[in-house]
Amino acid sequence: MFEHIERVPGDAILGLIEAFKKDTNPQKVDLGVGVYKDAQGNTPVMRAVKEAEALLLKNETTKTYIGSHGAPEYGQVILPMVLGEGSPILEARRASATQSPGGTGALRLAADFITRKLPGKGIWVSDPTWPNHHGIFTAAGIELHKYPYVDAENRLDFDGMLAALKQIPEGDVVVLHACCHNPTGFDLNREQWQRVLGVIQERQLLPLVDFAYQGFGEGLDEDAYGVRLLAENLDEVIITSSCSKNFGIYCERTGCLILVAKDAEQMENVRSQIAIVARENYSNPPAHGGAIVSEILRSAELAAVWRDELTEMRDRINTLRRDFVEALEPYGLDQKYHCVAEQRGMFSYTGLTPDQVDRLRDEFGIYMVRSGRANVAGFSQENLSYLAKAIAAVN
């Protein structure tokens, strides 16, 4: 029966990993893989995570299922982190948390929920957006559309975005990146979030906010501005949260689907449906990552250690952005690539063309996605001069 099945191209980023490993250039640089790296190029286990895991190992008494919604204590720490301590949403019991296998799992839960309970609704994503958004929503059978986000000059096209949102059919779903937009790094400011809220209210749209990088932009609370603004001013919001980046637990697959409903009764109705969607997808989410997060956030001491580590990671990335632009100054390219310093998060839409990306790979051993998206965490004080010289050579 398998004879007719054709081979498809592998994932582009996974292909970059293999090509990078085989490259013998001693100065090679990996800017492709979307994980945080320290100055030595490693993805470390955070100190708070190691301490939490030691406590879990010592105190664990069972490996039983944790239920389709996940461990209750996980939701109890994630909801205030996302929506804010003392949030009126939480006080009114309008929010539901469902632990998921990563942010990707949360997105798939949201997609299946939309397909089943909001049939016929289209979904709108930024152009560009995280490529897997396309795969997830299309696989769930949702009609996918795009709204502008970056213009031809590699700048945030907010006017184009707002104009497009005003044309979306009433009741459709619009996907928004809460912060650290993947892949561009261009974020909305507070005034722009206010204007987006106005259009959502006017068009009666349902926002689905992808919150994968909380704490990687400006800070835990600062990065949540758009999420909290929408949740506190709209009857219904879908939020997908991830702990992969801010806790550094990529392989533990720890995410959360948060739904905000008009009132507590409607929230319970929605929550009952999400339990069925989760049950039919994977039954129960993996427990370990959520237990790590709960252990950390329920301990004042561990939470303080974690926040300090997260601040170090964020500050390192933001410093590297500025230093990268300064390294290009001797070549007269600092203004052309100044956008890199303005962007936030791990990723940058550099403005490099596919041909320039190919030359950087073939001539200098510098690897990134052909769209010109670079993982800024792959920069280091040791390779910035080399990067700047290489980029100057292909410009």
Order of helices and strands: HEHHHEHEHEHEHEHEEHHHHEHEEH
What is the first-to-last residue Cα distance? 51 Å
Which structural class should the secondary elements be placed in? alpha/beta
Considering DSSP H and I runs of 4 or more, what fraction of the residues is helical?
40-55%
Unreliable stretches (pLDDT < 50, length at least 5) are: none
Q: Total number of β-strand segments?
A: 11
- The backbone outline, from C-alpha atoms, is globular
Separate helix tally: 15
Walk across the major sheet and give the strand order. Answer: 2-8-7-6-5-3-4
Q: Strand count, sense and closure of the main sheet?
A: 7 strands, mixed
What would you report as the Rg, rounded to the nearest angstrom? 21 Å
How large a portion of the residues is in β-strands, by DSSP E? 5-15%
What does this structure look like?
By secondary structure, the chain is an alpha/beta fold. Helices cover 45% and strands 13% of the residues. The protein has 15 helices and eleven strands. Helix 2 packs across helix 11 (288-297). It is globular and about 60 Å long.
Name the descriptors.
395 residues, alpha/beta, seven-stranded mixed sheet, two-stranded parallel sheet, 13% strand, globular
Task: Compose a concise summary of this entry.
By secondary structure, this protein is an alpha/beta fold. The chain is built from 15 helices and 11 strands.
Secondary structure topology:
Layout: H1 12-22, E1 29-30, H2 47-59, H3 72-83, H4 88-91, E2 95-101, H5 102-117, E3 123-127, H6 131-139, E4 144-148, H7 158-165, E5 173-177, H8 190-203, E6 206-211, H9 225-233, E7 237-242, E8 254-260, H10 264-281, H11 288-297, H12 300-327, H13 339-342, E9 347-349, H14 354-364, E10 366-367, E11 373-375, H15 384-394
Parallel strand pairs: 1-10, 3-4, 3-5, 5-6, 6-7
Antiparallel strand pairs: 2-8, 7-8, 9-11
